[in-house]
């Protein structure tokens, strides 16, 4: 009895210690005291509960869950359902947490709060929205602001991932979290400018709220703002401002935020901006998407987008095996998704295996008819790249849900025209027009009352008529033009086309229809011709003519008659012209450009030195005889003599004469210099 009393006293003291440590938040010390209590009584339910709580507070979720499972007989779901579900939630065992919550006999407020979080992680947004609405309606405590923030986060997720137009919850955006979630919802709707303004407001509120705390540094504020700046950069990227977005993304990465989810999203967005450029940077950034815990921070669609981009990056970096491995893995996870098979086909095309790529796409289209349209469009593109335009047309015409679309009709007609297959092009028009006629009959429920055709229907008929007229199919175009005129009898342009077509087929009918044309008075345009001609934009301005008198008029008329009588003069023939001989066809070309030109013959220079045997000259020996030159009389007149050179004389004064052999000598010297240069001195 004394031992039992001593044990009870020790236990009481330990419980006091546990209570005191719990109030002080010292759960590590409290855990030691709880363990001592359990040594006294290992099945003490309260002690076991306290131990689980202490372990949770210390972040030891796995150990806490182990204690719960070990003592499952004592710690039943009624006693410790919340703690068990919370441990499973924190260990990312979301499905198990949901089962634990649903198996609890009593749904407490704590379980309902956790239930909302679990539904959000499971991306069951409709159920999550209902759960938070119920909590807000039936709870009144200090956590109301947090519940509203979670509610707005659910709405933002619906708008972003499920493309649901969010309803106005009437939440007052007094905190930066609420502003941020509202901005995310607007991004999901495509309202980027409004979303940017919300994010700017969120940034301002965040700075205000954090700056009030003196312990918070500027680095802490920037770290908190990182997620807001990340969304701002994303909006810039969507708006095409890629340089600004890239700069902001890199600024966030330099801060080294602890949120691995944020870093993974930013790295993925940078990779999408780089595309097939700057692949070295992309390969560095892709490492951030592989960080531990990323899969628990992002939604399924975000993770899927990251995996798609990894496969594309492998393709751009010529890692064919890695690309095939990633795309095959993605296809096994989402067999109905288009992107994996498109990536595989793109990789095959890079390897010049176009036929295999088309076969792969065809197999997917056969297995998934719901997604066949987009796949067949890709197949047609591959066929066009191969030059098989007709086969591409056949593939496009097999897409029944797109046959009547104006874009598809235009593409097919253009392709058939390129192949000069006019009959097939007209057939495309006919099928599209018939589809709209059948659609109109269905909507009118067989009513025989005249119903106007839709603008798209009328546009197709007009394009068909114009196409037939262009290619000379007048008779076929007449029925289309009549249908258009019937829809709008006041359309003068259609009537004019119809008359033009009938004039070549049935002139009498054209005359009858021409009576429906409006009179020239009603069609006249009120245009000041003089003002138009005198305007700056006119290419021809008529000069203002003055009043002509009678004589001037006669003169002008006379000049006009003279001009009319003028005849073109016949060209003069050369003197040696022989009509029997065919003229030289190259006579208009310069002599040097004629085919028979053989170059100019060099004439013999009589006075050229160097001709003949060595030492001989062409100049007479008497001219070079110095003795004879000395005795010859001077050619210049003596001073005082009356002899003078006449103006008509051909004699050149001595000072203007050149030595007889000077040019030749100079030329010879130049030749010697050139010879010396070739010698390589």
Automatic annotation (TrEMBL):
Annotated coiled-coil positions are 94-149
Where does the UniProt annotation locate this protein? Cytoplasm; Endoplasmic reticulum
Checking Gene3D superfamilies in the record gives: Tetratricopeptide repeat domain
Q: Where is the composition biased (Low complexity)?
A: 610-644
**What GO annotations for molecular function exist for this entry?**
7S RNA binding; ribosome binding
Q: Where along the chain is composition biased (Basic residues)?
A: 563-573, 665-681
Q: Which UniProt keywords apply?
A: Coiled coil, Cytoplasm, Endoplasmic reticulum, Repeat, Ribonucleoprotein, Signal recognition particle, TPR repeat
Gene Ontology annotations for the cellular component aspect, listed alphabetically: endoplasmic reticulum; signal recognition particle, endoplasmic reticulum targeting
Q: Which GO terms describe its biological process?
A: SRP-dependent cotranslational protein targeting to membrane
Region (Disordered) spans which residues?
Answer: 542-681
TPR repeat start-end pairs: 226-259
| Protein's UniProt keywords contain Repeat | yes
Q: Which family does it belong to?
A: Belongs to the SRP72 family.
User: What is the protein name given in its UniProt record?
Assistant: Signal recognition particle subunit SRP72
Give the originating organism.
Gymnorhina tibicen
């Amino acid at each position: 009895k004394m031992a039992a009393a001593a044990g009870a006293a020790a236990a009481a003291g330990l419980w006091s210690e546990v209570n005191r440590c719990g109030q002080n938040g010292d759960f590590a010390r409290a855990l030691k005291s709880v363990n001592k209590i359990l040594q006294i009584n290992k099945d003490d339910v309260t002690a076991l509960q306290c131990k689980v709580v202490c372990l949770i507070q210390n972040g030891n979720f796995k150990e806490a869950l182990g204690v719960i499972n070990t003592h499952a007989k004592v710690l039943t779901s009624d006693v410790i359902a919340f703690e068990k579900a919370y441990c499973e939630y924190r260990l990312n065992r979301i499905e198990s947490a949901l089962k634990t919550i649903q198996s609890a006999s009593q749904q407490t407020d704590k379980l309902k709060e956790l239930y909302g979080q679990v539904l959000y992680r499971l991306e069951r947004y409709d159920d999550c929205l209902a759960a938070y609405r119920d909590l807000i309606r039936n709870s009144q405590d200090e956590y109301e602001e947090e519940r509203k923030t979670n509610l707005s986060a659910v709405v933002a997720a619906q708008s972003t991932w499920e493309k649901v137009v969010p309803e106005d919850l009437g939440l007052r955006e007094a905190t930066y979290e609420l502003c941020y979630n509202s901005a995310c919802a607007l991004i999901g709707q495509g309202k980027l400018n409004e979303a940017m303004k919300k994010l700017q407001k969120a940034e301002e509120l965040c700075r205000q709220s954090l700056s009030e705390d003196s312990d918070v540094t500027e680095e802490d504020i920037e770290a908190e703002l990182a997620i807001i700046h990340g969304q701002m950069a994303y909006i810039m990227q969507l708006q095409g401002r890629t340089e600004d977005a890239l700069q902001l993304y890199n600024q966030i990465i330099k801060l080294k935020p602890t949120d691995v989810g944020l870093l993974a999203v930013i790295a993925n967005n940078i990779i999408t901006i780089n595309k097939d450029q700057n692949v070295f940077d992309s390969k560095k950034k892709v490492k951030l998407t592989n960080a531990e815990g990323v899969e628990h921070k992002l939604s399924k669609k975000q993770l899927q987008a990251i995996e798609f981009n990894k496969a594309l990056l492998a393709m751009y970096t010529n890692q064919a095996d890695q690309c095939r491995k990633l795309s095959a893995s993605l296809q096994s996870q989402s067999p109905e998704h288009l992107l994996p098979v498109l990536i595989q086909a793109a990789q095959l095309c890079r390897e010049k295996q176009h036929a295999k790529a088309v076969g792969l796409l065809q197999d997917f289209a056969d297995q998934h008819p719901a997604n066949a349209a987009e796949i067949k469009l890709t197949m047609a593109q591959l066929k066009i790249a191969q030059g098989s335009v007709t086969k591409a047309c056949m593939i496009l015409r097999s897409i029944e849900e797109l046959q009547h679309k104006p874009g598809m009709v235009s593409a097919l007609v253009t392709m058939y025209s390129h192949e000069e297959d006019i009959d097939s092009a007209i057939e495309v028009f006919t099928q599209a027009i018939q589809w709209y006629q059948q659609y109109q009959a269905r909507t009118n429920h067989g009513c025989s009352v005249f119903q106007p055709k839709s603008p798209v229907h009328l546009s197709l008929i007009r394009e068909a008529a114009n196409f037939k007229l262009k290619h000379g199919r007048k008779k076929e175009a007449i029925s289309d033009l009549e249908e258009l005129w019937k829809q709008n009898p006041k359309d003068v342009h259609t009537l004019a086309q119809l008359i033009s077509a009938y004039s070549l087929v049935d002139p009498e009918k054209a005359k009858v229809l021409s009576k429906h044309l409006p009179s020239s008075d009603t069609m006249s345009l009120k245009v000041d011709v003089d003002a138009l001609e005198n305007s700056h934009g006119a290419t021809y301005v008529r000069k203002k003519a003055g009043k002509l008198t009678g004589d001037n008029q006669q003169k002008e008329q006379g000049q006009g008659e003279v001009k009319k009588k003028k005849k073109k003069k016949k060209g003069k023939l050369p003197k040696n012209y022989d009509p029997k001989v065919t003229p030289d066809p190259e006579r208009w070309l310069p002599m040097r450009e004629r085919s028979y030109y053989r170059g100019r013959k060099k004439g013999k220079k009589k006075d050229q030195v160097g001709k003949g045997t060595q030492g001989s000259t062409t100049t007479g020996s008497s001219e070079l005889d110095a003795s004879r030159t000395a005795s010859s009389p001077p050619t210049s007149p003596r001073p005082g003599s009356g002899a003078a050179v006449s103006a008509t004389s051909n004699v050149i004064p001595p000072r203007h004469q050149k030595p007889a052999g000077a040019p030749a000598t100079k030329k010879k010297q130049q030749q010697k210099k050139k010879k010396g240069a070739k010698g390589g001195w």
